[in-house]
Amino acid sequence: MVSGLSGFQAKHIIRQTTDAQSSNQCPDETLWNQGSVRAGGALRARRANKCPACFLGPYSDWETRMKEVKFKPPSGASRLAITMAIGASVLASGAHAQDTAKTSSGETIQLEEIIVTARKRSENILKTPVSVTAVTAEEVEQRGITSVQNLSEQTPGFNINNNSSGRGDRSFQQLILRGFTPATTDSTPVATFIDGVPVSSPTAVMSVSSPERIELLRGPQSAYFGRNTFAGALNVVNKEPGNDYAGSLTTMIGTRNTRRVQAELEGPLVEDKLSFRVAGDYNAKDGTYKNYANPSMTLGDQSSRNANLLVVATPTDNLTIKAFGIISHDKDGPAALGLISARAITDSTGRVVVPAQANCTLGGFNPFMCGTVPSLPATTPAGNYNVDSFVRNALAVTTNRLIDPNDSVDSYGLVRDYRHAHLVVDYEIPDTNFTLSSLTGINHEEWGSLSDIGNYDSSGIANPAYTATNGLRSYFSSAYLVENISKDISQELRTSYDDGEALRFVAGVSYLGANGKRTVDTLDNMILNKQVTPSGKTESKTYGGFFGITYDITDKLTASVEGRYQIDKLYAYISPLADVVVTDPTFVPAGTYKAGSKLAEQTYKNFLPRVIAQYQWTDEVMTYASVAKGVNPASLNSGVVSYTGQAATIAKTLGIDLFVSPEKVTTYEVGLKGTAVDNRLRYAFAAYYSQWRDQLNQVIQTFVTPTGGFGSVFGTINSGNSDMKGLEFDGSFRLTKMITLTAAGALNDSKIKDYNAPLVTFLVGSTDFSGNELPSTSKYSASGGVMFNGEFDQWEDATWFARVDYNYKSGVWSDVANVVKTPESHIFNARVGATVGAVSVDVYANNLFDSRRYTTANNNILFTPAPSFTYSTLNVGLRDGRTLGVQAKYKF
């Protein structure tokens, strides 16, 4: 038997499959019989029980037919390509295995099948016992998804927080699934991947020019995806380039100087052996909000440009090699962040710069905002964002800079450069059911962020540290420069087995090594010290061995046992600036530590299992139940090496230590998936209960020193425990040939059992947060959409569509005290488009009714020349206003 089909044979079968519908004839059965069609999960007989109708002949099911023709479906990457090609051809021509729903003209109106790789193999989403949201390439385009922020806004149960420490830029984006809100800016409970290979930045996943689909996996995914998949994983799958030369050019313009240009080209380098796709993308927008301190400046400006290249080689029928790379550059202006204060701020003339908006008193003496977050005052958003000689001189400092000043920020905002590359190799061992796979990835990210974390116009307030000769501003400001460099490399080796009958399994090993450096300093210090104060680098190494076994106990009952044994090694290093003499042995042994030397290391070992029981009630309905464990890698506080005496005692009392234990979760989940109404209705339900233990949280404590000054300690601790529960729904209904309805919803409920948050305690006067919900996440969220599409009878090869989407998210709490929360949001998006031949034109309206509801809310200190050291303010994330635009695309 021939082990696989050549490119010619595959295309021949696809073409005959399509033609068969009109001629009522079957493809060449001799050719079909002699080739081992690598169909994989999508066409596996016993589960899918469907095939092109003409192949069934007198047989009642696909399994019987395959036994007759000695069908032997091996596993591997190459069979998926043929599967999807045949499936697309069949669906396009209206051929389906089961009885189809048809219009009066005989055209089918079934929903298309969606394939996902949630378990490192290709499976029908309705047969996958995991809660998965899959966004197809067509939906990405029709819904105008160009960023992770767009994706989260349109996905129930998915929030993003980039509001912390007075900053609201894209230097960090916390992905929040199922209410698992990370309390630290560096904690990542949802990891991101491209083609299953880790990427270090959420921004990178949306740099893929032609995604086959975006997969959002909910719940612990440690067994297959490794570290940082504590609450889920976001995986973008590349669409393989075709065997014909093709390309596209897309341009878009919109209100507020919104613009985009994208171009891509794909085709064969060697017929049936080597193909490529190269693409470039530039998109930018001006912010919605004017800076009150400088009305000529808008806040929230963003621009991104990237280039990516995909090369796919199939030197033999058994070997597939994919190489992919991204280079991207982001440049943003000051963030769209507003300030709401409980206390008033006035300048030297008596002008009220920030009004007091307190409506309650907490802890007996702290004025604050309670209930719904108040409206933004007329004097904000504002900030001292002018680039004057003070800023230029500070940014010209070179000593101890992580990034060359020519490559970092030159004004307020963010500059980020990101590079990613990966190589995926799949080899199907001939005459067996085994596939060997290798996934290698490398990431390099560096960014600089300059922000005034006061977030108000302080130009009329004198700077007490200013002198005529020290180079500081004469007025008070809170300008901070943060620079970061992170690198990582990953390697995964695995083998998978699929006998086409009852048994499938995968087993492998993985490694992820990462290191990073970060500096945080005020521009005042940089001017006075003529240098940046560096910190020691951080380093981690993660080793894993994983497996997954799936066995069909009966035709209806399937069991899966998965697991990963993970070893995390963390290393802390001394700052490279100078030797450190430790006199207080509270955290590390006393002694002299050389500059840049390793301070300490720690190892954590965890076994992370997942067990799934799956029952196929009918061909259309499946239920499952699972239990899974996840772990988020531990953290470290290298700064404790400098704490002595009073500071060391207070830090220890808060629970701060050099190393912090990993946080853990156990999740129980049940689900129901299926189709109905002759495959016109697709639905998925899931319910879960999670126990989140040893949560990480950042704490800071300010204290009065014996000399009457102020000191502070800062660090990450294991702060507490929470229980999480929720319900999720996702469904689509093809009402008619022209109308498709979509709906999704999520209830993500969290309940704190115990939690340690000293600053919040100081604000509210209580240490008991039990029974409260976690902040920065929506408890309720939903979306609904209606899609109209059809053809223009007067033109050949001409179609049109119109789409309206509604997205709802309930408000989010600002902290664990649950004192104040944002209003709920209702966002409508609309898009209308037409395609005539090679040209497509879309007109869109995002945030159609111009909602200005806040996206985030975060407690912050009120920064003045004499800080109050209490959480007296709220920083609120400001939503983009209504954007109208038009997009044109030419395909060739």
From TrEMBL:
Listed CDD domains: ligand_gated_channel (cd01347)
Topology term for the membrane: Multi-pass membrane protein
Keywords: Cell outer membrane, Ion transport, Iron, Iron transport, Membrane, Receptor, TonB box, Transmembrane, Transmembrane beta strand, Transport
The TonB-dependent receptor-like beta-barrel domain, residue ranges: 396-848
GO aspect biological process, one term: iron ion transport
Chief site of localization: membrane
CC per GO annotation: cell outer membrane
A Pfam short name: TonB_dep_Rec_b-barrel
Protein's UniProt keywords contain Cell inner membrane: no
Domain (TonB-dependent receptor plug): residue spans on this chain: 126-233
Cellular location(s): Cell outer membrane
Keyword Chloroplast set for record: no
Transmembrane segments: none
Recorded family membership: Belongs to the TonB-dependent receptor family.
The protein, known as: TonB-dependent receptor
